[in-house]
Amino acid sequence: MSEVIATYQLKGKSGSFGKKAEGIALGLTVGSWTDLPLLEQEQLRKYKGRVVSVEDWEDDDGSRAEVKIGYPGHNYSNDIPAILTTVFGKLSLDGEVKLLDLDFSEDLKKSYPGPRYGIEGIRELTGVYERPLLMSIFKGVIGRDLTFLENQLRAQALGGVNVVKDDEILFDNSLTPFYERVRLGKKVLDGVFEETGKRTLYAVNLTGKTSQLRDKARKASEFGADALLFNVFSYGLDVLQELREDPEISLPIMAHPAFAGAAAASPQYGVSYSLWLGKLLRMAGADFSLFPSPYGSVALEKSNVLSISRELTKDDAHLKKTLPVPSAGIHPALVPLLVKDFGTDCVINAGGGIHGHPDGAIGGGRAFVQAIDAVLNGTSLREAAKTHEELEKALSLWGGEVKV
């Protein structure tokens, strides 16, 4: 049976949730039921939403319930906008209700592409295996020219960074035009590869009017772009899927979480982080998913963060795995905690933690590489710092190793 089962958390009065669930199932499908003649009920039965389960409990703030409702697949076109409108469109305006999850029947799920490259594909592009990837961010680039970007990019790559991304607020502009950034990135990183034998990828920020994004991404691919950064929640998950499915683009896509909090931040309203930054991003085609770490400068509650990571990386017969990228306020002393919580199939992403190093971005990158090596070798950061100057300086600046 083609179906999407939506899981909600509701607030209400004890004993009322069964009736509330039935009202949702009807209101978001056929509209009414008991008042219909029997003939019409039979004609519409296959379109009617069904209540799968209702589980309620009491907490300090009153009565709540987790409700599962199935929506027949022939009620909507099999695309994310239609499904979100069906299961949570007007319901999102109806008091304290949160959409926790969506379970797609296999026939519907197979229509979604998932990541083009996934974790293994990105590892092949970078040549980095069996360890976390290291990523850094262009910083302080607003109002700066291409020479500034060139110097930053080269320093980050020489420091051992595997992926460099644009800042999400770096849009197309006269000082650092989009296509010139692509050309510059290719020139700089090809040069570093010749020097070091190590490949660094550069994710350029794809921005502009929605109608122009496809052609812009195609040209970026022609000009030798490595990857695309995309502010998916400003544009929409369906736009991400179209970019992923275009055979003339064929680039890894890095999904930035900007604006995601508007839909997911409240514990009582909106959409769960695991669905928003996890399952749906993976289904739509993101190779990387950025999200706030549980211990950085813009921290999310740890259970939310780990649930995002699980959705991105759990085994799935149809979808490749998406790289989790815990971000914000990351510095070398946090590497042991990052590896403990996210394993080796993740990206350690730092901005200030690399650029703020006393030896600049080269020293910052090296300090992270040294920290990662130490953790994988079972050595404490303090012990490793005795023979690695860059790591020692980083620990002196940002603090010692965080206990795991």
Commentary on this structure:
The protein is an alpha/beta fold. The protein has 2 domains: 3-109, RuBisCO large subunit, N-terminal domain (Alpha-Beta Plaits), CATH 3.30.70.150; 118-398, Ribulose bisphosphate carboxylase, large subunit, C-terminal domain (TIM Barrel, Alpha-Beta Barrel), CATH 3.20.20. It contains 18 helices and 13 strands. It has helices at 17-27, 38-44, 80-88, 106-109, 118-126, 146-158, 178-196, 210-222, 232-235, 237-245, 261-264, 273-284, 302-313, 335-342, 352-355, 360-376, 381-385, 389-398, and strands at 3-12, 50-59, 62-72, 97-104, 133-137, 163-165, 201-205, 227-230, 253-255, 270-271, 288-292, 323-327, 347-350. The chain has an 8-stranded parallel beta sheet with strand order 12-11-9-8-7-6-5-13, sandwiched between helices. Strands 2-3-1-4-10 form a 5-stranded mixed beta sheet. β2 and β3 (62-72) form a beta hairpin. The mean pLDDT is 94.
Label this structure with key terms.
404 residues; alpha/beta; TIM Barrel; 2 domains; 18 helices; RuBisCO_lsu_C_sf; EC 5.3.2.5; methionine biosynthesis; amino-acid biosynthesis; magnesium ion binding
In short:
The chain has 404 residues and is an alpha/beta fold. 42% of the residues lie in helices and 19% in strands. It has 18 helices and 13 strands.
* Name given to the CATH architecture of the largest domain: Alpha-Beta Barrel
Mean pLDDT: 94
CATH superfamily grouping of the largest domain: Ribulose bisphosphate carboxylase, large subunit, C-terminal domain
CATH top level class name of the largest domain: Alpha Beta
Count of domains: 2
Largest sheet: 8 strands, parallel
Could you tell me the number of beta strands? 13
CATH topology of the largest domain: TIM Barrel
Query: Low-confidence parts, pLDDT < 50 over ≥5 residues?
Result: none
Rg measurement, Å: 23 Å
Overall geometric form: globular
Provide the spatial order of strands within the biggest beta sheet.
12-11-9-8-7-6-5-13
Structural class: alpha/beta
The fraction of residues assigned to DSSP E strands is: 15-25%
Distance between the termini: 46 Å
Helix content: 40-55%
